[in-house]
Amino acid sequence: MSSKYGLKNKKLAAWVAGIEDLCKPDKVAVYNGSKEEYDSLFKEITASGLAKKLDPEKRPNSFHFCSDPSDVARVEDRTYIASRSKDDAGPTNNWIDPEQLKKNMLKLYKGCMKGRTLFVIPFSMGPIGSPISKIGIEITDSPYVVLNMHIMTRVGTKVLDTLGEDGEFIPCLHSVGKPLADGESDNGKWPCAPIEQKYISHFPEENLIWSYGSGYGGNALLGKKCLALRIASAMARREGWMAEHMLILRLTNPKGKKYHIAAAFPSACGKTNLAMLQPTIPGWKCECIGDDIAWMKIAPDGSLRAINPEYGFFGVAPGTSVKSNPVAMETIRANTIFTNCVVTDDNDVWWEGMGTPCKGGTDWKGRKWTPESGEKGAHPNARFTAPAGQCPVICPDWEDPQGVPIDIFVFGGRRTSVVPLVTEAFDWDHGVYLGATAASEPTAAALDVKSAIRRDPFAMLPFCGYNMADYWQHWFNMGDKLGARAPKIFYVNWFRKSPDGKWLWPGFGDNARVLKWMCERLDGVAKGRKTPIGILPEKNELDLSGLKISGGELDELMAVDTATWKHELDDVASFMGKFGDRLPQRMKVQFDNMKKRLSK
Ligand code: OXD
Ligand code: MN
Q1: What dihedral angle (degrees, nearest 10) is formed by the CA atoms of 310, 118, 66, 446?
Q2: Whole-angstrom Cα distance, residue 483 to residue 477?
Q3: What's the pLDDT at 446?
């Protein structure tokens, strides 16, 4: 028997009925994921003024949204991990008692969808039917969310068919938190709730997500950061797999040998650029599998297999140009949703750092704008949402349900000093230490930029759904299970500067030279040299052919200064101290070993 909305899954039918009763929408619609439904929803919301259709000659089938100025990014202070015990959330997460949180949020949810449609979005994170994939259902009252989820995940009837009558799913409840009075409409304005009413809540012990008050990005597209990282990381620990904030790429050498690399970097360190890298070294080819999240399981043959659970890219627009990322520019040429960019007078999009001039248009706040206006036209976190399948260098196996075998893990951050271009970990445990101590400098706006570094372990600081110390232990455990099949681990820093402030490394396509060295280490071709912090390339091992870089610059790029590294250890010690006796013993051993090596 199916429910009144044709939902055959019993748990789903009961959940939808309960939420309808609580939130009191005017209508309920189950999103079937067809092109017709996508197009007709866009027709409706362009007519309402919420979205603007861009010139189809310049940007076919693409749309632009302006959000509310109070709703432009992930809100980390309003993001909660509600486990029963505070210690299980750990010192790096915002914790609230789950009972209390539910009480607060139920009050907000009561009648919150009045005047709106409640959409039910069935979605799969990962190829439908893959042994690594998971099914989620998002209930939302935001058409913006429906349309973005259509691009970012696999949605619709095919997911419901896979779910069947008794299948398991992760319930994700979302509301913009702006009920409408009788006869009231949004009048084309982005609906959301004030900041103190925004909640992005995770209940990892129940695999449950409740989000209220924000319609933007990771706060509202619940498949991404909420499910695929925070909830999935907690599930992965319980079930013995890995959910990581990592891009995935395939590198092929001139002989046709393939290497698969998964890399974790904090936000604003060029993850999407690396995922779409075009090597400058002849004969090497790079293909993209994912740009933000990797789910990995140990296969029966002992290899670690990774899938990209997403179906699209939700990328930062400002700074994306033909020079910085030509592949991304090609990916977003059509069928793309833009948010908070400039809409030009000739009805295309533009942003700062696009590399082309703009005479004028409408800024992200909906005001007339010209380059002389004195303010940025696009919000710094303006975004594009584009189908991954449109990426010209998408790997032919990106949707392989079995995933790709990972050979190399890379961690990194943005450091203008101290950290060399590339370091290889001595072994798995040392690699876990490198990931755990990853740090980055903020890109701008910090008052004391020189000393301000943020420890962002495994780039998971805002995304780990449980105690970070237990997460490190999980990494040690995975290494034990993988044994000789464990990927090699490296740490990179593309951002080192000379004392007079010059970038020492060209970055972008030239980063392939560093990846090449990693592959050669894997194959035992490059020898490397031991230093107290790890293995660095031996002189002449890095392929610099055709690059203008002096011997002196290379020495600076690779320099390991023991005094500054000892100083760095003080900061690591105070960070690790936060975790008390939950800190894994093996992490303490790694710290002590590092200290000993630096004192020799
Ligand atoms: C993202 C992030 O948006 O990591 O992907 O902040
Ligand atoms: Mn990310």
Answers
A1: -60
A2: 10
A3: 34
pLDDT at residue number 384:
98
What lies within 8 Å, CB to CB, of 314 at 6+ separation is 148, 152, 217, 221, 224, 292, 383, 384, 385
- Identify the residue whose C-alpha is closest to ligand 1 atom 2: 267
Query: Is-contact 6 30, C-beta < 8 A?
Result: yes
| DSSP code per residue over 346-395 | TS-EE-TTSSS----EE-TTS-EE-GGGSS-SS-TT-EEEEEGGG-TTB-
- Domains of the chain, each with CATH number or no CATH: 10-49+76-240 (3.40.449.10), 244-311+398-599 (3.90.228.20), 312-390 (2.170.8.10)
Which pLDDT does position 394 carry in this prediction? 98
Q: What is the pLDDT of residue 448?
A: 36
With a 6 A CB cut-off, is 321 part of the ligand 1 pocket? no
3-state secondary structure of 287: strand
Cα separation, 54 vs 62, whole angstroms:
6
Q: Please report the pLDDT score of residue 600 as a whole number.
A: 85
- What's the CA gap between 206 and 342, in Å, rounded? 41
- Residues of the chain with confidence (pLDDT) below 50: 444-450
For the record, the structure tokens of 197 come out as: 């009413």
137 touches 120 (CB < 8 A)? yes
* 75-127 pLDDT per residue, tens: 999 999 999 999 999 999 999 999 999 999 999 999 999 999 999 999 999 99
Are 310 and 290 contacting, i.e. CB atoms less than 8 angstroms apart? yes
How far are the Cα atoms of 225, 300, 362, 500 from residue 586, in angstroms, in the given order? 29, 27, 55, 39
Q: Largest Cα–Cα distance of the chain, in whole Å?
A: 76
- Taking alpha carbons only, the member of 283, 281, 277, 280 closest to residue 250 is 277
The pLDDT score that the predictor gives to residue 334 is 98
The predicted model scores a pTM of: 0.97
- HEC secondary structure over 175-225: ECCCCCCCCCCCCCCCCCCCHHHCEEEEECCCCEEEEECCCCHHHHCCHHH
Please give the span between the terminal C-alpha atoms of the chain, in angstroms, as a whole number: 73
* Residue from 221, 267, 464 whose mutation best tests the ligand 1 pocket (most atoms within 8 A of CB): 267
CA distances from 323 to 284, 392, 545 (A): 20, 16, 21
List the structure tokens of 140.
Answer: 């939302």
Measured from the CB, is residue 280 less than 6 Å from ligand 1? no
Residue 417 Cβ < 6 Å to ligand 1: no
In angstroms, what is the span from residue 593 Cα to ligand 1's centroid? 33
